[in-house]
């Protein structure tokens, strides 16, 4: 299998990255972040979640965020939609893609969306049908594909089963998500190959949280089996409110640095993403978790200190 020469990066920082923040992030900050990411050249940004505000208060301003961002033609702005109420909110807000999110683990499904896997598929069915009817792109996300914080091991067959059900619902793209970042490259390849036996490989994505520091290796392992879509979060922000201790997604800056270094195109301006990562880290008062972001910011600061003063 040859490596892809183009990779689509789905920037999930504004949603996965911010959803776990305890203090409310002002809507203006979310909008400014998405606008900076748009300018950096992403073709897909996960911008909001239309979930219960009691479950995830940080995402309650999704409609406002979507109304105020400056959209770029060619960029899809996605939103999470666990049920019809979420779907209606997302469509009213002009989402280009809706995301139904299930799990390969029964225990996580209960904790995250308060129902069994089978019940979740039944809830997703009308969302999927409505998305198809309205011509809106439909993505399916499968949490705990590499392990579960409650149940531990997750059999590959459980992942494959949900991939099949999401395919039957008509998903255009399916995310294999390592919610708690426990996967390692060999297992990741096994899961990706098994998923690809059920669904087109070029529409499967890798969504890796970096809790155990395995995410970049897992991306490389996925590239080796032909996966060419990855999710990443600017400055490595984030975590899942229903997966305690899970850290953010792999940092977008680190993924871009690796891919560009390998000669793989993304169409994204790394330096612009580093500046966006610096902006959001300062705005929410968090250390920047991107190694590449920190390295480049330090290098730029040193270069500007060394520059002769203007006279
Ligand atoms: P429930 O309590 O079983 O739902 O929650 P319900 O239908 O009984 O409704 C309860 C209340 O929520 C009602 O309000 C509904 O109106 C309201 P009340 O009558 O009590 O005032 N409600 C809603 N409000 C706004 N938008 C909606 C909505 N639906 C119901 N869409 C539910 C079920 C799915 C709603 C809930 O469990 C929920 O919102 N869960 C979301 C959890 C979440 O957002 N988790 C993080 C995102 S997933 C993730 O991060 C993983 C991912 O990154 C991949 C990975 O890394 O693994 C994608
Ligand atoms: Mg996630």
UniProtKB/TrEMBL annotation:
Task: Give the reaction(s) catalysed.
Answer: (3S)-3-hydroxy-3-methylglutaryl-CoA = acetoacetate + acetyl-CoA
Q: Does the keyword Metal-binding apply?
A: yes
Q: Where is the Pyruvate carboxyltransferase domain?
A: 7-274
* E.C. numbers: 4.1.3.4
Extract the InterPro entries matched here: Aldolase_TIM, HMG_CoA_lyase_AS, HMGL, PYR_CT
GO:BP terms for this protein?
ketone body biosynthetic process; L-leucine catabolic process
Q: What class of enzyme is it?
A: lyase
Which GO terms fall under molecular function for this chain's record? Answer: hydroxymethylglutaryl-CoA lyase activity; metal ion binding
Mind listing the UniProt keywords for this protein, alphabetically? Lyase, Metal-binding
Q: Which Gene3D superfamilies match?
A: Aldolase class I
Which pathway is this protein assigned to? Metabolic intermediate metabolism; (S)-3-hydroxy-3-methylglutaryl-CoA degradation; acetoacetate from (S)-3-hydroxy-3-methylglutaryl-CoA: step 1/1
Of which family is this protein a member? Belongs to the HMG-CoA lyase family.
Q: What name appears for this protein in its UniProt entry?
A: hydroxymethylglutaryl-CoA lyase
Q: What is the lineage of its organism?
A: Bacteria, Pseudomonadati, Pseudomonadota, Betaproteobacteria, Burkholderiales
